[in-house]
Amino acid sequence: MIKRTRRTAAVLAALLLSAVGCTAAGGPAPARLAGSGGPAPSTAAGAPAASAAGRGFTLVASGDVLPHTSVIRQGAADAEGGGYDFRPMFSGVRPVVSAADLALCHMETVYGEDGGPYTGYPAFVSPPEIADALKHTGYDGCSTASNHTLDDGADGLRRTLDRFDKVGLKHAGSARTAAEAAAVTLYTAGSAEVAHLAYTYGTNGHPMPEGQPWAVGLMQRDTIVADARAARKAGADVVLVSVHWGTEWQTEPDATQLSLGRELTASQTGGRPDIDLVLGTHAHVPQAYEKVNGTWIVYGMGDQVAGQMFNHSGEEDPRGSYGSIGRFTFVPPAAAGQRWQVTKAEFVPQWMDRGAGRVVNLAEGLAAHPDREDYRTAQEAVTEAVLSRGAAKEGLTMGR
Protein backbone atom coordinates (compact mmCIF):
# COMPACT_ATOMS: atom_id res chain seq x y z
CA MET A 1 0.00 0.00 0.00
CA ILE A 2 1.50 3.32 -1.05
CA LYS A 3 -0.01 6.71 -0.25
CA ARG A 4 0.50 9.41 -2.86
CA THR A 5 -0.36 13.05 -3.34
CA ARG A 6 0.83 15.73 -5.81
CA ARG A 7 2.07 17.67 -4.97
CA THR A 8 25.85 37.15 15.29
CA ALA A 9 26.21 40.49 13.48
CA ALA A 10 28.26 40.11 10.28
CA VAL A 11 26.73 36.78 9.40
CA LEU A 12 23.25 38.11 10.09
CA ALA A 13 23.88 41.17 7.95
CA ALA A 14 25.00 38.99 5.05
CA LEU A 15 21.97 36.78 5.42
CA LEU A 16 19.66 39.74 5.55
CA LEU A 17 21.22 41.08 2.37
CA SER A 18 20.63 37.77 0.62
CA ALA A 19 17.00 37.82 1.72
CA VAL A 20 16.25 41.27 0.27
CA GLY A 21 15.31 41.76 -3.36
CA CYS A 22 14.53 38.10 -4.00
CA THR A 23 15.93 36.85 -7.30
CA ALA A 24 15.82 33.53 -9.07
CA ALA A 25 18.93 32.51 -7.19
CA GLY A 26 18.07 33.95 -3.78
CA GLY A 27 14.30 34.17 -3.46
CA PRO A 28 11.59 31.82 -2.37
CA ALA A 29 10.48 29.00 -4.58
CA PRO A 30 7.95 29.89 -7.23
CA ALA A 31 4.34 28.88 -6.80
CA ARG A 32 3.16 25.41 -7.69
CA LEU A 33 2.22 25.09 -11.33
CA ALA A 34 -1.05 23.35 -11.96
CA GLY A 35 -0.57 19.97 -13.59
CA SER A 36 3.22 20.15 -13.54
CA GLY A 37 4.18 18.88 -10.09
CA GLY A 38 6.16 22.06 -9.47
CA PRO A 39 8.32 24.67 -11.12
CA ALA A 40 10.98 23.93 -13.68
CA PRO A 41 14.38 23.06 -12.15
CA SER A 42 16.61 25.93 -11.17
CA THR A 43 19.41 26.83 -13.54
CA ALA A 44 20.82 29.52 -11.22
CA ALA A 45 24.57 29.86 -11.02
CA GLY A 46 26.06 27.03 -9.02
CA ALA A 47 22.98 24.81 -9.35
CA PRO A 48 23.26 22.06 -11.96
CA ALA A 49 20.49 21.90 -14.51
CA ALA A 50 18.15 18.98 -14.17
CA SER A 51 18.62 16.10 -16.52
CA ALA A 52 16.20 15.73 -19.37
CA ALA A 53 14.63 12.83 -17.51
CA GLY A 54 13.66 14.72 -14.38
CA ARG A 55 12.51 17.89 -12.68
CA GLY A 56 13.72 19.18 -9.34
CA PHE A 57 11.56 20.25 -6.42
CA THR A 58 11.50 22.43 -3.33
CA LEU A 59 10.69 21.07 0.11
CA VAL A 60 9.67 23.11 3.13
CA ALA A 61 9.36 21.67 6.62
CA SER A 62 8.38 23.34 9.89
CA GLY A 63 8.35 22.70 13.61
CA ASP A 64 5.95 21.69 16.34
CA VAL A 65 2.28 22.63 16.18
CA LEU A 66 1.51 22.55 19.91
CA PRO A 67 -1.90 24.06 20.73
CA HIS A 68 -1.87 25.23 24.31
CA THR A 69 -5.09 26.54 25.82
CA SER A 70 -4.34 30.08 24.66
CA VAL A 71 -3.95 28.83 21.08
CA ILE A 72 -7.31 27.09 21.30
CA ARG A 73 -8.90 30.28 22.60
CA GLN A 74 -7.41 32.22 19.71
CA GLY A 75 -8.88 29.76 17.24
CA ALA A 76 -12.29 30.32 18.78
CA ALA A 77 -11.86 34.10 18.69
CA ASP A 78 -10.95 34.01 15.00
CA ALA A 79 -13.98 31.93 14.03
CA GLU A 80 -17.05 33.64 12.67
CA GLY A 81 -20.32 32.16 13.83
CA GLY A 82 -18.85 29.77 16.38
CA GLY A 83 -16.42 26.89 16.25
CA TYR A 84 -12.72 27.30 15.56
CA ASP A 85 -10.71 28.82 12.74
CA PHE A 86 -6.93 28.57 12.84
CA ARG A 87 -6.35 29.71 9.26
CA PRO A 88 -5.58 33.33 10.25
CA MET A 89 -2.96 32.07 12.69
CA PHE A 90 -0.92 30.54 9.87
CA SER A 91 -1.55 33.26 7.28
CA GLY A 92 1.88 34.87 7.70
CA VAL A 93 3.70 31.74 6.55
CA ARG A 94 1.19 30.61 3.95
CA PRO A 95 3.14 32.19 1.05
CA VAL A 96 6.28 30.22 1.97
CA VAL A 97 4.46 26.96 2.56
CA SER A 98 2.14 27.06 -0.43
CA ALA A 99 4.95 27.98 -2.85
CA ALA A 100 6.83 24.73 -2.22
CA ASP A 101 6.36 21.58 -4.25
CA LEU A 102 6.19 19.58 -1.02
CA ALA A 103 5.39 21.02 2.43
CA LEU A 104 5.53 19.05 5.67
CA CYS A 105 4.51 20.08 9.19
CA HIS A 106 4.79 18.40 12.58
CA MET A 107 1.44 17.86 14.33
CA GLU A 108 2.53 17.17 17.88
CA THR A 109 -0.87 16.66 19.49
CA VAL A 110 -4.01 14.63 18.83
CA TYR A 111 -7.53 15.79 18.12
CA GLY A 112 -10.70 15.54 20.14
CA GLU A 113 -14.29 15.04 19.07
CA ASP A 114 -16.01 17.77 17.08
CA GLY A 115 -17.10 20.41 19.56
CA GLY A 116 -14.71 19.29 22.29
CA PRO A 117 -13.84 19.19 25.06
CA TYR A 118 -10.29 20.30 24.30
CA THR A 119 -7.31 20.60 26.60
CA GLY A 120 -3.80 22.06 26.56
CA TYR A 121 -0.79 21.09 28.65
CA PRO A 122 -0.02 18.53 29.99
CA ALA A 123 -2.33 16.12 28.11
CA PHE A 124 -3.22 17.77 24.82
CA VAL A 125 -6.51 17.18 23.04
CA SER A 126 -6.81 19.71 20.23
CA PRO A 127 -9.59 20.95 17.94
CA PRO A 128 -9.63 19.03 14.66
CA GLU A 129 -10.06 22.31 12.79
CA ILE A 130 -6.29 22.69 13.09
CA ALA A 131 -5.94 20.14 10.30
CA ASP A 132 -8.18 22.27 8.09
CA ALA A 133 -5.90 25.25 8.70
CA LEU A 134 -2.77 23.24 7.92
CA LYS A 135 -4.24 22.12 4.60
CA HIS A 136 -5.35 25.68 3.79
CA THR A 137 -1.82 26.94 4.54
CA GLY A 138 -0.45 24.62 1.88
CA TYR A 139 0.87 21.65 3.80
CA ASP A 140 0.71 18.32 2.04
CA GLY A 141 1.24 16.20 5.13
CA CYS A 142 2.72 16.05 8.62
CA SER A 143 4.80 13.91 10.90
CA THR A 144 2.58 12.67 13.74
CA ALA A 145 5.00 10.78 16.00
CA SER A 146 5.64 12.66 19.24
CA ASN A 147 5.66 12.25 22.98
CA HIS A 148 2.02 13.44 22.94
CA THR A 149 0.70 11.05 20.28
CA LEU A 150 -0.94 8.84 22.90
CA ASP A 151 -2.22 11.60 25.21
CA ASP A 152 -5.77 10.42 24.46
CA GLY A 153 -4.97 6.82 23.66
CA ALA A 154 -5.88 5.01 20.49
CA ASP A 155 -9.04 7.09 20.10
CA GLY A 156 -7.14 10.37 19.92
CA LEU A 157 -4.71 8.92 17.41
CA ARG A 158 -7.57 7.62 15.27
CA ARG A 159 -9.49 10.90 15.35
CA THR A 160 -6.40 12.78 14.26
CA LEU A 161 -5.67 10.61 11.26
CA ASP A 162 -9.35 10.48 10.34
CA ARG A 163 -9.37 14.26 10.15
CA PHE A 164 -6.21 14.23 8.09
CA ASP A 165 -7.93 11.91 5.64
CA LYS A 166 -10.97 14.17 5.53
CA VAL A 167 -9.03 17.32 4.65
CA GLY A 168 -6.49 15.63 2.36
CA LEU A 169 -3.34 15.60 4.49
CA LYS A 170 -0.97 12.66 4.47
CA HIS A 171 0.87 11.53 7.58
CA ALA A 172 3.82 9.51 8.84
CA GLY A 173 4.70 8.32 12.33
CA SER A 174 1.41 6.98 13.70
CA ALA A 175 -1.13 4.49 12.41
CA ARG A 176 -4.60 3.07 12.98
CA THR A 177 -3.88 -0.39 11.58
CA ALA A 178 -0.90 -2.67 11.12
CA ALA A 179 -1.19 -2.30 7.35
CA GLU A 180 -1.11 1.48 7.65
CA ALA A 181 1.95 1.29 9.89
CA ALA A 182 3.75 -0.88 7.34
CA ALA A 183 2.85 1.35 4.39
CA VAL A 184 5.33 3.81 2.92
CA THR A 185 4.08 7.39 2.74
CA LEU A 186 5.09 8.64 -0.69
CA TYR A 187 4.63 12.03 -2.31
CA THR A 188 5.29 13.07 -5.89
CA ALA A 189 7.33 16.30 -6.08
CA GLY A 190 8.79 17.39 -9.38
CA SER A 191 9.70 14.09 -10.97
CA ALA A 192 10.71 12.53 -7.65
CA GLU A 193 8.96 10.02 -5.46
CA VAL A 194 9.62 11.27 -1.92
CA ALA A 195 9.20 9.05 1.13
CA HIS A 196 8.45 10.51 4.55
CA LEU A 197 9.23 8.50 7.70
CA ALA A 198 8.69 9.73 11.27
CA TYR A 199 9.66 8.58 14.77
CA THR A 200 9.65 9.75 18.40
CA TYR A 201 11.94 9.09 21.34
CA GLY A 202 8.93 8.07 23.46
CA THR A 203 5.31 8.69 24.41
CA ASN A 204 5.51 10.23 27.91
CA GLY A 205 5.15 6.82 29.53
CA HIS A 206 1.90 5.97 27.77
CA PRO A 207 2.03 2.35 26.61
CA MET A 208 1.09 1.38 23.11
CA PRO A 209 -2.62 0.58 22.83
CA GLU A 210 -3.37 -3.06 23.54
CA GLY A 211 -2.65 -5.17 20.50
CA GLN A 212 -1.24 -2.20 18.60
CA PRO A 213 2.55 -2.21 19.09
CA TRP A 214 2.86 -0.45 15.72
CA ALA A 215 0.67 2.55 16.68
CA VAL A 216 3.56 5.03 17.00
CA GLY A 217 6.98 4.90 15.35
CA LEU A 218 9.72 4.72 17.99
CA MET A 219 13.18 6.13 17.39
CA GLN A 220 15.54 3.18 16.96
CA ARG A 221 18.47 3.31 14.59
CA ASP A 222 18.02 -0.13 13.06
CA THR A 223 14.30 0.38 12.54
CA ILE A 224 14.82 3.73 10.82
CA VAL A 225 17.48 2.36 8.48
CA ALA A 226 15.39 -0.69 7.63
CA ASP A 227 12.37 1.50 6.92
CA ALA A 228 14.45 3.83 4.74
CA ARG A 229 15.70 0.89 2.70
CA ALA A 230 12.15 -0.42 2.37
CA ALA A 231 11.08 3.00 1.14
CA ARG A 232 13.73 2.82 -1.59
CA LYS A 233 12.39 -0.56 -2.65
CA ALA A 234 8.89 0.97 -2.73
CA GLY A 235 10.13 3.45 -5.31
CA ALA A 236 11.41 6.40 -3.28
CA ASP A 237 14.00 8.59 -4.97
CA VAL A 238 14.36 10.76 -1.85
CA VAL A 239 13.91 9.63 1.77
CA LEU A 240 13.06 12.18 4.46
CA VAL A 241 13.20 11.22 8.15
CA SER A 242 11.45 13.23 10.87
CA VAL A 243 12.61 12.59 14.43
CA HIS A 244 11.04 13.91 17.63
CA TRP A 245 14.16 14.02 19.79
CA GLY A 246 16.57 16.16 21.78
CA THR A 247 16.57 17.86 25.17
CA GLU A 248 13.86 20.42 25.79
CA TRP A 249 15.05 24.04 26.13
CA GLN A 250 18.58 23.11 25.04
CA THR A 251 19.78 24.95 21.95
CA GLU A 252 22.73 22.62 21.42
CA PRO A 253 21.92 19.16 20.05
CA ASP A 254 22.41 16.55 22.73
CA ALA A 255 24.61 13.45 22.57
CA THR A 256 21.82 11.25 21.22
CA GLN A 257 21.00 13.67 18.43
CA LEU A 258 24.65 13.92 17.43
CA SER A 259 25.36 10.19 17.52
CA LEU A 260 22.13 9.08 15.87
CA GLY A 261 22.45 11.82 13.28
CA ARG A 262 25.93 10.56 12.36
CA GLU A 263 24.73 6.97 12.15
CA LEU A 264 21.70 7.75 10.01
CA THR A 265 23.59 9.92 7.55
CA ALA A 266 26.43 7.37 7.30
CA SER A 267 24.11 4.49 6.41
CA GLN A 268 24.43 3.51 2.75
CA THR A 269 23.31 0.82 0.37
CA GLY A 270 25.41 0.22 -2.72
CA GLY A 271 27.29 3.46 -2.11
CA ARG A 272 24.10 5.52 -2.02
CA PRO A 273 22.94 7.11 1.26
CA ASP A 274 19.79 5.54 2.67
CA ILE A 275 18.52 8.88 4.03
CA ASP A 276 18.56 12.22 2.24
CA LEU A 277 17.45 14.66 4.96
CA VAL A 278 16.80 14.54 8.72
CA LEU A 279 14.20 16.90 10.22
CA GLY A 280 14.11 17.33 14.00
CA THR A 281 11.42 18.55 16.40
CA HIS A 282 10.62 18.55 20.14
CA ALA A 283 13.13 20.82 21.93
CA HIS A 284 10.80 23.90 21.86
CA VAL A 285 13.74 26.09 20.83
CA PRO A 286 15.48 26.52 17.48
CA GLN A 287 18.49 24.28 17.04
CA ALA A 288 21.28 24.05 14.50
CA TYR A 289 21.26 22.95 10.89
CA GLU A 290 24.35 20.93 9.98
CA LYS A 291 25.62 18.92 7.04
CA VAL A 292 26.88 15.56 8.30
CA ASN A 293 28.34 12.92 6.00
CA GLY A 294 27.13 15.05 3.10
CA THR A 295 23.51 15.08 4.31
CA TRP A 296 21.64 17.95 5.95
CA ILE A 297 20.35 17.50 9.48
CA VAL A 298 17.99 20.00 11.07
CA TYR A 299 18.39 19.15 14.75
CA GLY A 300 15.35 21.16 15.76
CA MET A 301 13.04 23.62 14.04
CA GLY A 302 11.52 24.92 17.26
CA ASP A 303 7.83 25.48 17.80
CA GLN A 304 5.73 26.86 15.00
CA VAL A 305 2.57 27.30 17.06
CA ALA A 306 2.53 27.26 20.86
CA GLY A 307 1.19 29.21 23.80
CA GLN A 308 3.00 30.57 26.83
CA MET A 309 6.00 28.39 27.55
CA PHE A 310 7.96 27.82 30.75
CA ASN A 311 11.41 26.26 30.85
CA HIS A 312 12.77 23.75 33.35
CA SER A 313 13.44 26.56 35.85
CA GLY A 314 9.77 27.50 35.79
CA GLU A 315 10.48 30.78 34.02
CA GLU A 316 8.64 31.98 30.95
CA ASP A 317 11.01 31.50 28.03
CA PRO A 318 10.53 33.56 24.86
CA ARG A 319 12.49 31.00 22.84
CA GLY A 320 9.40 28.80 22.99
CA SER A 321 7.88 31.11 20.39
CA TYR A 322 10.89 31.02 18.03
CA GLY A 323 11.31 28.64 15.14
CA SER A 324 12.52 28.14 11.62
CA ILE A 325 11.15 26.73 8.41
CA GLY A 326 13.66 24.69 6.46
CA ARG A 327 13.58 25.00 2.69
CA PHE A 328 15.64 22.69 0.49
CA THR A 329 15.92 22.54 -3.28
CA PHE A 330 16.56 19.07 -4.72
CA VAL A 331 17.70 18.32 -8.27
CA PRO A 332 17.82 14.95 -10.04
CA PRO A 333 21.04 12.96 -10.24
CA ALA A 334 23.17 13.08 -13.34
CA ALA A 335 23.08 9.29 -13.61
CA ALA A 336 20.76 6.50 -12.52
CA GLY A 337 21.49 5.07 -9.10
CA GLN A 338 22.97 8.29 -7.71
CA ARG A 339 21.32 10.42 -5.06
CA TRP A 340 19.21 13.51 -5.62
CA GLN A 341 21.28 16.52 -4.60
CA VAL A 342 20.36 19.45 -2.37
CA THR A 343 21.62 22.43 -4.36
CA LYS A 344 20.14 25.11 -2.13
CA ALA A 345 19.52 25.06 1.63
CA GLU A 346 17.67 27.87 3.41
CA PHE A 347 16.03 28.67 6.71
CA VAL A 348 13.14 31.07 7.16
CA PRO A 349 13.02 32.49 10.73
CA GLN A 350 9.59 32.69 12.29
CA TRP A 351 7.98 33.80 15.54
CA MET A 352 4.70 32.97 17.21
CA ASP A 353 3.39 36.38 18.20
CA ARG A 354 1.19 35.29 21.09
CA GLY A 355 -0.24 38.75 21.59
CA ALA A 356 -1.60 38.83 18.06
CA GLY A 357 -2.15 35.08 17.83
CA ARG A 358 -0.23 34.88 14.54
CA VAL A 359 2.85 33.15 13.15
CA VAL A 360 5.21 35.79 11.74
CA ASN A 361 7.66 35.34 8.88
CA LEU A 362 10.38 37.43 10.50
CA ALA A 363 12.32 38.33 7.36
CA GLU A 364 9.15 39.61 5.71
CA GLY A 365 8.02 41.24 8.95
CA LEU A 366 11.24 43.19 9.34
CA ALA A 367 11.20 44.25 5.72
CA ALA A 368 7.77 45.76 6.28
CA HIS A 369 8.38 47.00 9.84
CA PRO A 370 12.12 47.65 10.33
CA ASP A 371 11.43 49.40 13.63
CA ARG A 372 10.04 46.25 15.30
CA GLU A 373 12.69 45.39 17.87
CA ASP A 374 10.77 42.29 18.93
CA TYR A 375 11.02 40.98 15.37
CA ARG A 376 14.73 41.78 15.25
CA THR A 377 15.44 40.13 18.61
CA ALA A 378 13.62 36.99 17.55
CA GLN A 379 15.32 36.81 14.16
CA GLU A 380 18.77 37.23 15.68
CA ALA A 381 18.08 34.48 18.22
CA VAL A 382 16.84 32.06 15.56
CA THR A 383 19.76 32.85 13.27
CA GLU A 384 22.35 32.38 15.99
CA ALA A 385 20.93 28.97 16.89
CA VAL A 386 20.53 27.78 13.31
CA LEU A 387 24.10 28.72 12.34
CA SER A 388 25.73 27.57 15.58
CA ARG A 389 27.37 24.50 14.01
CA GLY A 390 28.84 26.13 10.92
CA ALA A 391 26.00 25.69 8.44
CA ALA A 392 26.75 29.01 6.75
CA LYS A 393 30.07 27.59 5.54
CA GLU A 394 28.12 24.76 3.91
CA GLY A 395 25.95 27.23 2.03
CA LEU A 396 22.91 27.63 4.30
CA THR A 397 21.29 31.04 3.79
CA MET A 398 18.34 32.91 5.18
CA GLY A 399 15.27 32.90 2.98
CA ARG A 400 12.00 34.80 2.86
Give the tally of structural domains. Answer: 1
Number of helices: 11
CATH superfamily descriptor: Metallo-dependent phosphatases
The end-to-end span amounts to 37 Å
Q: Using the alpha-carbon principal axes, give the shape.
A: globular
Task: List the main descriptive attributes of the protein structure presented here.
26% helix; 11 helices; 400 residues; 9-stranded mixed beta sheet; 7-stranded mixed beta sheet
Walk me through this protein's architecture:
- This protein is α/β, with parallel strands linked by helices and 400 residues long.
- It has a single domain (2-32, 53-398), classed as Metallo-dependent phosphatases (Purple Acid Phosphatase, chain A, domain 2, 4-Layer Sandwich).
- The protein has eleven helices and 20 strands.
- It has helices spanning 9-19, 69-77, 87-90, 94-99, 129-137, 153-167, 178-182, 221-233, 255-266, 362-368, 373-386, and strands at 2-3, 57-65, 102-107, 110-111, 125-126, 141-143, 170-172, 184-189, 192-200, 238-244, 268-269, 272-273, 277-281, 289-292, 295-298, 303-305, 322-331, 341-353, 358-361, 397-398.
- Helix 5 packs parallel to helix 6 (153-167).
- The longest helix has 15 residues, at 153-167.
- The relative contact order is 0.16.
